[in-house]
Write a structure and sequence with these properties.
The protein is of the alpha/beta class. The protein has a single domain, classed as Gcn5-related N-acetyltransferase (GNAT) (Aminopeptidase), CATH 3.40.630.30. It is built from three helices and six strands, in the order ββββαβααβ. It has a six-stranded mixed β-sheet. Helix 1 links the parallel strand 4 (36-43) and strand 5 (71-74). It starts with 7 loop residues before the first strand and ends in a 6-residue tail after the last strand. Residues 9-94 form the N-acetyltransferase domain. This is N-acetyltransferase domain-containing protein.
């Protein structure tokens, strides 16, 4: 399997999406408040940078929200920028752009 084909996994018990390669994780951490999926933080190790892994993590959030009807709340700056840069993806989901707090 090519590294870019490794799946992004929704580890719902730990409120995170992750991509694992060679025992190293990239992750997107979220919390749930009712039907709101609040994206808190995206972390990608240096070794994974430049490969689109962070974007795949946010895409996985969007895919989940599209199928579940949850509203994405992108408090993570990266996730918010990615969604704004992907208008076709953003148009298919409910997004609450309200800032934290």
């Amino acid at each position: 399997m090519q590294p870019e084909e490794a799946p992004v996994v929704d580890d719902a018990a730990n409120h995170r999406f992750h991509f694992t390669e060679g025992g190293v994780d990239a992750e997107l951490v979220y919390q749930l408040e009712g039907d709101r999926l609040i994206v808190l933080h995206t972390q990608v190790p240096e070794a994974f940078r430049g490969r689109g892994i962070a974007g795949r993590l946010v895409q996985a959030v969007a895919d989940r929200a599209k199928s579940s009807g949850e509203t994405v709340v992108p408090w993570c700056p990266y996730a918010g920028k990615w969604l704004k840069d992907q208008p076709d993806v953003a148009a298919g989901i409910k997004i609450d752009w309200s800032p934290p707090g």
